[in-house]
Amino acid sequence: MEPPSPSTRVRLKDVARAAGVSTITVSRAFSAPEQLHPQTRQRVLDAAQAMGYVARQRPTGEENRRPVIGVINPQLDNPFFHDLACAFSQQGEARRMDVLIMDSHDSAAQEEAAVDRLIACGVDGIILTVISADRRYRPPYFERLEKAGIAVILVDREVTAPHYGGVYIDNLDCGYQAGMWMREQPVERLLILSGPPDSLVTIGRVSGIREAMAGSRITLEVNYGDFSMTPAEQFLEKRLDQPPLPDALIGINNQITLGILAAYRRAGLPLPGQPGGPRLFCIDGIACAELLGMDMPSIRHDLKTMATQAMDLVEDALRSGSRRGSRQVVRGHLHLPGETA
């Protein structure tokens, strides 16, 4: 059999595709075999032999390149996801990995386009926060990622699609902490502004609040809407025309809480925390709120820990080539006004 011509020579990425692994895994099979699981390395070697691939004897740029990880966020203008993206970037530098940050703008079409661009770039792994918090959400690009052998790590939102592990917030605990704080306050009517009713985030946080409120005399009212600011503001503008008004509110995330503040300001009513205003609790927290004189009780999350755990899962997936990634849960902590951390 004649050796392949330069135009048809088998490349590193061809072997990776055939073996169902990343290009960096193929490279390590020849340059650093001790870093791979023996079964993974043998699968690569078998594919390489069948295709006639010959590893170059001297290291070149392709074999020595840094692993490339794509990060797709649903809303980079949301401080939560912006800060999380910064944490991923810092983790990448510390681990000598290149990190590409992309924004899906809460659009299914742009999310799919971002995935396809990262596949075309030949990334080794993708850290993904999908646009939907519905566990049943499963866009077709997951099959393309699986076929390309790209390790997918889910963050914040969990779906039943092929992936190598995930890092999630303990939403039930977030709601429970918020509810327990509110239960100790002198309030009678609590309004919860939440996200979609079928969202796992909504279900967890609202369930936690209800659990904490069990047996109390506080009247609960829940509005199911959207996780963004404008719908919350629009709903609350109408609700503030219908007495009796709530004397306490919980915003299920930071964007909803901003909508609450905007609605009260537009209505000309005392803002939460001001004399005559309602009590307000924000799950997720609002970045730098204390600098604006709006420090409020909230649940804050250790984004550095979330980024570290997600990158650990990526590295494990690239090293082992297996789907043994775990489901890791991060617990938020209660922040009270006046605290510095």
UniProtKB/TrEMBL annotation:
PROSITE patterns: HTH_LACI_2 (PS50932)
Keywords in alphabetical order: DNA-binding, Repressor, Transcription, Transcription regulation
Region (Disordered): 322-341
Superkingdom, taxonomy of origin: Bacteria
Any one GO molecular-function label of the UniProt entry: DNA-binding transcription factor activity
Transmembrane segments: none
A GO BP entry: transmembrane transport
Compositional bias ranges of the Basic residues kind: 322-334
Protein name in UniProt: Uncharacterized protein
Classification lineage: Bacteria, Pseudomonadati, Pseudomonadota, Gammaproteobacteria, Oceanospirillales
